[in-house]
Specification:
Oligomer: single chain
Helix content: under 10%
Radius of gyration: 34 Å
Shape: globular
Strand order of the largest sheet: 2-9-8-5
Structural class: mainly beta
């Protein structure tokens, strides 16, 4: 073998001079050794065009032809002259390569949204002769790539526009003479504009002495917004405009009028500062804003027809069970960084086993001998879970505290525990549910270790059930339903045992959940049937800022609201609504009445509980 390889090598060497001589004249071309780009990165707005410049080395290379290509031509395209066009928001890489030798260089291209609107604050301004004011411009969307603004005055003899050299979103207005002028901010990208009408009068300038905000801290939920109010002192200050800013626009943005909008979970500091250049030692006011995530528990059927327990965080789903057996997550509670979900999962004997999932890890609360289901979880100093155990003859209301089981009912009559709440003082627990009474009808129950609270909410003359409990300022609010004399179910709220009918009793209705704010404003959700026999998702509240009897669904298909959580100005309601196409329930999140889907819309899914943290 060695001799054979040696022979082949010798033959190849012998042919080498012949092959060179057969190629004709000696190669005199100057080959490309490198290609470079002046711009390693490029940021464009949608529709913008920018040219990349490539340098070929050596400068006397014989063939300088180049090929241009975009790795994602849907985000940005590039022609063979290096002109890059932004097409839609996203990222791509533009690569240029030499025809001779394939030498390459790359530019990272980011395409952001274009400006869609411009706003200015203030929209009117009064100045005195020789005085100066400031106008702050804001563009939407907040992450628009090209936020450059140009400023003009339609009457420079009265007032001139003087944008800051390092921040053209701020324009100083200088009063020249008495009269009227209009200062206009124009977006370079898109040409959108907004104006401030300036009136110049004679009189003294009153400088700002302080700026205050109505809150030092606040929490808003994902997708929600809250308006902060800035107070400028003194009341007769000449320049009352406030400049707003956010320490982290990826978490929360702020408009020129103080509207703070949640963008992603986290914390940001919103600052309001005076634009009065004559103000002395006036510190800006600030508010720490925390954006809370939205956690939703429920279930969704897999394509093979098995109910999978599911947890959604800010709309992104996570399976809690593996889909081998039927499972549901009925409740969710978040404390610190820990997420607790309660529900059930069938064992291999097809019996439901009460489950508590801690950060996705399942813990069995029952043995699986009798069908058992966890209905609600609340975490204070301890982990409280309530539910029901069935033995084939009757059902028993259950309470687990840190996994230790307590029977709330005797077992002689069927009972279920549906909801648990523990106030911040951690002295007592409150559990809502029902127990069959002596007359054989369901009796609404409130089990508690607080001896001062009423335990039996109804007298047993008609079927009534308690579905949810919330305790605020020492008052116990229980939501549920009960039948009237005509056999219709009426949505009901008990406040310290006193019943309040939420529906008029003409059509069947029920209240499923209640949430109460610190100022004793209650929000109750459930459903009520319309004249066409369709279940309509409902919100009942004593909040004057909302309709006190609000339809969340349009009544075209069956819908139900099952849980509610309120934080700041955001009212978060979850439940389900049948889709038109498949006529299957689909998980829903209503934020201030606006629906958002949670399931895939194909398989049956339901959102059963919501919690914000």
């Amino acid at each position: 073998m060695k001799n054979h390889l040696t022979s082949l090598l010798a033959a190849a060497l012998a042919l080498a001079p012949v092959l060179v001589s057969c190629g004709g004249e000696k190669d005199t071309a100057v080959h490309v050794t490198s290609v470079t780009l002046r711009q390693p990165t490029l940021t464009l707005a949608v529709g913008d065009i920018s040219r990349l410049t490539a340098t070929v080395e050596p400068s006397n290379a014989t063939d300088k032809k180049l090929n241009w290509k975009s790795s994602n031509f849907l985000v940005a395209s590039v022609d063979q002259q290096g002109n890059v066009t932004g097409l839609r928001s996203g990222r791509t890489t533009v690569v240029v390569s030499s025809v001779d030798g394939g030498k390459m260089a790359a530019c990272s291209v980011t395409v952001g949204p274009d400006v869609t609107a411009v706003f200015v604050e203030p929209s009117t301004m009064n100045l005195t002769l020789s005085g100066m004011g400031a106008i702050v411009a804001r563009v939407e969307p907040y992450d628009a790539v090209n936020q450059k603004i140009t400023w003009t005055s339609n009457n420079t003899s009265v007032a001139t526009a003087n944008p800051l050299p390092d921040d053209d979103l701020v324009c100083h207005v200088r009063a020249v003479s008495a009269g009227n002028a209009r200062i206009t901010a124009i977006a370079v990208s898109g040409g959108f504009s907004a104006s401030c009408d300036v009136r110049v009068e004679t009189g003294p300038v009153v400088n700002v002495t302080g700026v205050e905000l109505n809150k030092e801290s606040t929490t808003i939920g994902m997708g929600s917004a809250e308006t902060l109010v800035a107070t400028v002192q003194p009341d007769d200050a000449t320049f009352r405009a406030v400049r707003w800013s956010s320490s982290d626009a990826a978490v929360a943005t702020v408009s020129g009028s103080g509207v703070v909008t949640a963008v992603s979970p986290g914390s940001a500091v919103i600052t309001a500062g005076t634009v009065d250049t004559g103000a002395v030692d006036v510190a800006p006011a600030s508010c720490e804003v925390t954006v809370a995530s939205v956690y939703t528990a429920g279930f969704e059927f897999s394509p093979n027809g098995v109910s999978v327990s599911r947890l959604w965080k800010d709309g992104v789903s996570r399976d809690l069970s593996n889909g081998a057996n039927t499972a549901r997550a009925n409740s969710v509670c978040v404390v610190g960084g820990d997420v607790y979900a309660a529900g059930f999962e069938n064992n291999f004997d097809l019996r439901p086993v009460a489950r508590l999932w801690l950060n996705g890890n399942p813990v069995s609360l029952s043995t699986g001998v009798n069908p058992t289901e966890a209905k609600s979880v609340f975490v204070s100093n301890n982990v409280y879970v309530v539910g029901v155990e069935r033995d084939g003859q009757s059902s028993m209301a259950k309470l687990w505290i840190d996994g230790h089981q307590t029977n709330l009912s005797s077992g002689s009559r069927s009972a279920e525990a549906r909801s648990v709440f523990v106030p911040s003082d951690n002295l007592y627990y409150y559990v809502a549910g029902y127990e069959v009474g002596e007359q054989g009808r369901d009796v609404a129950r409130l089990w508690t270790n607080d001896q001062g609270q009423l335990q039996q909410l109804s007298n047993g003359s008609m079927d009534e059930q308690a579905m949810s409990v919330y305790v605020s300022n020492g008052n116990a609010y229980v939501a549920g339903f009960g039948k009237n004399g005509e056999g219709k179910t009426v949505a009901r709220l008990w406040i310290n045992g006193a019943p309040l009918n939420l529906s008029d009793g003409r059509r069947n209705a029920r209240a499923n959940a209640v949430f109460v704010t610190d100022n004793n404003t209650y929000y109750v959700v459930g459903h009520e049937y319309n004249a066409n026999g369709v279940s309509v998702a409902k919100l009942w509240t004593n909040d004057a800022a909302h309709s006190q009897n609000q339809d969340l669904s349009n009544g075209a298909t069956n819908a139900d609201a099952l849980s509610v959580y309120v934080i700041g100005n955001g009212v978060y309601v979850v439940g389900s609504e049948e889709n038109i196409t498949f006529r299957r329930p689909t998980g829903r999140l209503w934020l201030n009445g606006t629906p958002q889907p949670l399931g895939n819309g194909i398989e049956h899914s339901e959102a059963l509980a919501v919690f914000l943290k």
